[in-house]
Structure formats: C-alpha cells, structure tokens
Amino acid sequence: MNVQFKKGVLNLCVLVLLDKQDRYGYELVQKISDQISISEGSVYPLLRRLTKEGYFTTYLQESSEGPPRKYYKLTDAGRAYLHEQLAEWRTFTDGVNALIKEGVQE
Amino acid sequence: MNKKKFFTHLKNNLTKLPHEERQEILQDYEEYFAIGQLDGKSEEHIATSLGSPKTIGKELSAAYHLEKAETTGSTGNLLRAIWAVIGLGFFNLIIVLGPFIALVALIVSGWVTGIGFTAAPLLILLNPILAPGTFELFDLFNSLALCGLGLFISIGMLYATKYFMNGFIRYMKFNGKLVKGGLTHVEH
User: Fold this and answer.
1) Cross-chain Cβ contact A37/B182 below 8 Å
2) B-contacting residues of A 22-51, CB under 8 Å?
3) Cβ separation of B188 and A5 shorter than 8 Å?
4) Which of B88, B102, B90 is nearest to B168 (CA)?
5) Is the pTM of this model over 0.90?
6) Which residue in chain B has the smallest CA separation from A49?
7) Complete domains list, chain A, with CATH
8) Contact present, B130 and B91 (Cβ < 8 Å)
9) SS3 for B132?
10) How much is the CA Rg of chain A, to the nearest whole Å?
C-alpha cells in the first residue's frame, strides 16, 4: 500500500492503542504489524515525535523478564488529538466507502 | 543483517545528534531487540522486520534538527535542519535547496539595498575628499532622503528575515510529509 497513506494511519493506530491502557514500544509495534504490514522500525520515530509534541509521556517499568520497558501514556492533549484524528478518519472512510459502493460492480 | 550490523548502521546515521538523544534512541532499539528475543525471534528476523537502519537514522536526525530549528531559530540550526532534510532523498536536494538559495538571495539583496541607502550621506561627504570641488548641497539632501528610506528598508528586512526563515521551516516540514510520507516513513 501507498506510503503516505500508511503514515497517516500509523499515527492513528498508535493513538488508538494507547487510549485504554499504557503500552511499551514492542507491544505497540507487534499489535500494529499483526494487522497491517509496516516497516517496524518506523514506529519509534513516530513515538518520539508524538512524545516531543506532548501527546505522550513515558515511564520505565521493570518486567519479570528482560530489561525494564519504556511505557507510553496518552496525555490529555494526546486524547484530544486522538478524537480529532478519529473523527477525520471516519469522515474520510465514510466518503471512500460511499464511492466504492456507488462505483464498484458486485 | 544481524543486531550488531543494525546498530552500526544506525549509529553512523545518528552522529549529528547530541549524545543524550542518541543514547535514548539506541536504548529504544536495544529494548526492542531484547523483548523480541524473549519472544523467540532471532536477531536476524528482528533486524529485517525493523527495516533499514539508515533510513531510520536519517529520519530521526531530520526530525530532531527541524524541531531544533523551529524552537531556537538560529542560523546554524536552520542550516543543520536543511542539511538533514536534504539527506532524506535526492528529490529534496532540488525542492529544498533551490527555494532556499532563491530566498537567501532575496534577503541578501534587501539588506544590501537597505544598508547602501542608509550609508548614502556618508559616501556623499567622502566625495569631496576623494574628488575636491564636486560637492553639491543637492546631493547631500538627496542622500539624506535616501538614508531615511534605507533605515525603513532595514527595519522591514529585520522582520522579513525572521518571517521568511520561519516560513521556510514550515515549508520543510510540509515537504517532509509530502515527499517521504512524513518524516516517519512507512514502507514494506
């Protein structure tokens, strides 16, 4: 799939995954790549950018095995951004779906 | 590609970042490898699915420098940001460097005009020293008018320079989104 297209979607995917619970980077990447094919390394730059823009905070937490994990937590600004992006996404997909329904022969 | 190679390539593309920033990034990927291996994946497999460390490094560098240029607005930071964005691809060489050179030329010519006009009375007063007998009051008054105009132009340029540079940073950010599908580009 088209690169630009996925980029915007990836943003939304990360925000959506953090809405209910905090997650660590690996977990986020796996969750997303289970559903859509991405270059996994590109999620971290995205996480860094959104953190710098104030949408996430991070904290380290020990785990039962392996190194401590960096968890990402949605801030209030992040939650507002999520809802904004989600509304945009819905308008967009509704529009595209309407066109598909109209245009594609069954 | 194994883990060691991945990190070598990544580090090579992060050399322009401050130590702390670089350590943080490397730490993130270290964590990723460690958890992936606990998950039963091989180093090779993890490195391959992460994608090109070169691309990742370049994107992280460009993102860092752009943000820096935006928050501090110094010329050095702006130049570093331009350099990093150009590094993202050949196409950027044309659509970033081209407008930048044009913009700088415009700004420089504006400043030269402003400063030149402002200095006009001084040059008129120098004139009789270099060529005695050519002094005319008409020239002097004319030059004083130019001086006032030059001051206005210089003050205008002060604002224009700041405004243009901020605009250019925004342009580079927009360009990053347009050309690479964002500074975080996704590919498979």
Assistant:
1) no
2) 24-26, 29, 33, 37-49
3) no
4) B102
5) no
6) B63
7) 3-97 (1.10.10.10)
8) no
9) coil
10) 16
